[in-house]
UniProtKB/TrEMBL annotation:
GO terms for molecular function: DNA binding; hydrolase activity. GO terms for biological process: regulation of DNA-templated transcription. It comes from the Bacteria. SMART domains: HTH_LUXR. InterPro entries: AB_hydrolase, AB_hydrolase_fold, Sig_transdc_resp-reg_C-effctor, Tscrpt_reg_LuxR_C, WH-like_DNA-bd_sf. This is Alpha/beta fold hydrolase. It comes from Tabrizicola oligotrophica. Residues 209-274 form the HTH luxR-type domain. Keywords: Hydrolase.
């Protein structure tokens, strides 16, 4: 009786989140929409507020059920969708983009301008190669500004100087702050000053996005713009031909719709989102491959008309192996492993699951695990394959189980690498490294938030580049870091994952659905499997540690488990010789 109680899922509770904590979470959501690099900050706050935890001697998990946070989440997603931060910049550009809504530029006190942000280009009319004399200020003011820039940049003045200058464009005063910055690049020894002005740029088309995010009327949008630009209610009312009291009434409606509680909070939210609108997206560059062969991508149409893709490598006449590419889209092996598959007479078939590559997503409401299994079956049927072994990774093991049950006699055996099993309690999430826990725990306990978190993660990967992102997420596993440092493994990961995150591909929707599916209880699926199963597990797996595997194996005594030393989630890539050796026992006779 005690053992059964230990295996039960923890009691779920909904927290009462205080206004201060709620404001902190909302701030982080918009910060992530502004810049996905801040996702780790959200991770820290989120885990402290709504993460799974244990209380006393009983287990309890906090589930998010807060309409206000969910409303802000939907709005932040609108901006993350439309203005994904995907650029690769140098140090000077980074300094300027940290303040995208205010006109700012860099200079050393000479005649030229070393760089300027997009807001300065709009507000001051600056073009490439612009000089200080092009600024819309009187000649005397430009001379004064140049003198202060030279003094601050050289260290002869305080690190920050503030000037009041009048714009020749608007006739209004502009406050300019001149501050010292560090050297921009190793090859550039010039001391520079950063000049930030109070000239605020309202991005073209921004109104439509704000209206969509908050459900505002056109009149309300005009008031939001006036408030954000610092105009008092009286001036906004005069400009619109309305009374101040009418504008105040409309402002109360705006605060209710935006779920903000003051003009200052409204301005903070809108200006933060304005930053997003001024970020220019940059497409990812496809990684160069020097040793992996280019594989033709084949396609078919399912009975419901969906497109399915797949590739193959190894021996085209060899024993069929259905390879499952994990939610990271690891569709290729290290070049020596692919050559070895051919030499050993193994035909490796790699369907691109729904939402990966150009395979179409399933319709909403479909049983995800069964739908994926049916897609695998459709590819095998199309190829006329009646017997095949399965090689799966991570939580893909559930698809292998489902396929073996969907068509008895088809699957000759399942070899799972770094497999994930259905988890039982919060302590098993606690043992994961923080990034894996962040995604999977929220898939179970805060599923409404997960799409935003995953999309932000994909945006972060674009911003950092896949190589740096992999290092960030898997840095807790020394074994995975050692494996990724090997050129042939790094190449396989970067090239293979193009079906998940490429120049024009983002599988964040598919990843989200897979994470949600993996955190439902699929124990009965595993227990029903009747084909031979061998799980190769790593002793440094950041997602499924040894202790968790040993706990879960008590529920699945029919599964064979072997631990490989000095391996993690990249077990297949690091120990492919061992994997192919063990796979041999499951291969169908040719």
């Amino acid at each position: 009786m005690r053992a059964m109680q230990d295996n039960r899922m923890p009691e779920e509770i909904s927290p009462v989140i205080g206004r201060e904590a709620k404001a902190e979470i909302v701030d982080r959501l918009y910060e992530v929409a502004l810049d996905p690099i801040r996702l780790e900050d959200l991770l820290e706050v989120w885990e402290g507020r709504v993460a799974p935890h244990r209380t006393g001697h009983s287990q309890a998990v906090v589930t998010l059920d807060d309409p206000e946070i969910e409303a802000h989440l939907r709005r932040a997603t609108v901006f993350l969708d439309r203005f994904e931060a995907t650029r690769d910049v140098n140090r000077a550009q980074t300094v300027l983009e940290e303040i995208p809504r205010s006109a700012a530029f860099l200079a050393d006190g000479g005649a030229g301008i070393a760089g300027f942000n997009r807001a300065a280009g709009v507000a001051f009319g600056l073009k490439d190669g612009a000089v200080l004399a092009d600024l819309p200020f009187d000649e005397e003011d430009v001379a004064l500004l140049r003198t202060q820039i030279a003094r601050v940049a050289s260290g002869r003045a305080e690190r920050a100087v503030t000037l009041r200058i009048r714009s020749t464009i608007t006739g209004s005063p502009v406050i300019v702050r001149v501050g010292a910055v560090d050297r921009v690049a190793e090859a550039d020894a010039r001391p520079l000053a950063l000049v930030i002005s109070t000239e605020l740029v309202w991005p073209e088309g921004f109104e439509a996005t704000v209206q969509e995010a908050f459900g505002l009327t056109l009149a309300e949008m005009e008031i939001v713009r006036g408030i954000a630009l610092g105009l008092p209610v009286r001036e906004i009312a005069e400009a619109r031909g309305r009374s101040p009291e009418t504008v105040r009434t409309q402002l109360r409606s705006i605060l209710a719709k935006t779920e903000t509680h003051s003009q200052s909070e409204l301005v903070r939210v809108v200006l933060g989102l304005m930053d997003v609108a001024q970020i220019a997206p940059v497409e990812m560059v496809q990684p160069a491959s020097t040793s992996l062969a280019v594989l033709p991508v084949m396609t078919l149409r399912t009975a419901e008309g969906r497109r399915l893709e797949w590739v193959e490598f190894g021996d085209p006449k060899g024993a069929p192996v259905l390879y499952m590419h994990l939610d990271l889209g690891l569709s290729r092996w290290p070049a020596p492993a692919e050559r070895a598959a051919r030499q050993r007479g193994i035909r490796v078939i790699v369907p691109h699951r729904a939402g990966f590559g150009r395979s179409d997503l399933h319709g909403k409401g479909a049983d995800y695990t069964e739908a994926v299994a049916r897609d695998y079956l459709a590819v095998l049927d199309h190829l006329g394959i009646t017997r095949a072994a399965i090689l799966s990774q991570g939580a893909d093991f559930r698809y292998a189980c489902a396929l073996s049950l969907l068509r008895p006699g088809l699957v000759t055996g399942i070899l799972g690498c770094a497999a994930q099993l259905p988890l039982r309690h919060a302590a098993q999430y606690d043992r994961m490294d923080k990034w894996q826990r962040f995604i999977l725990a929220n898939a179970r306990y805060a599923p409404k938030v997960l799409p935003f978190l995953v999309q932000a993660g994909y945006s972060l990967a674009r911003r950092l580049g896949k190589e740096k992102f992999f290092t960030l997420v898997n840095g807790g596993s020394a074994a995975d870091m050692a494996a990724f440092a090997r050129p042939e493994i790094r190449e396989a990961v970067l090239v293979g994952s193009e079906i998940a995150l490429g120049a024009k591909i983002s599988a964040h929707q598919a990843f989200t659905r897979e994470a949600l599916s993996s955190e439902k209880d699929w124990s009965k699926l595993v227990q029903a499997v009747r084909v031979p199963v061998l799980l190769l597990q790593g002793d440094q797996d950041p997602q499924t540690p040894v202790q968790t595997v040993r706990e879960l194996m008590a529920d699945f005594p029919h599964l064979e488990v072997t631990f490989l030393p000095d391996t993690g989630q990249l077990l297949l890539f690091a120990e492919w010789q061992v994997v192919l050796d063990r796979l041999g026992r499951f291969l169908p006779a040719r």
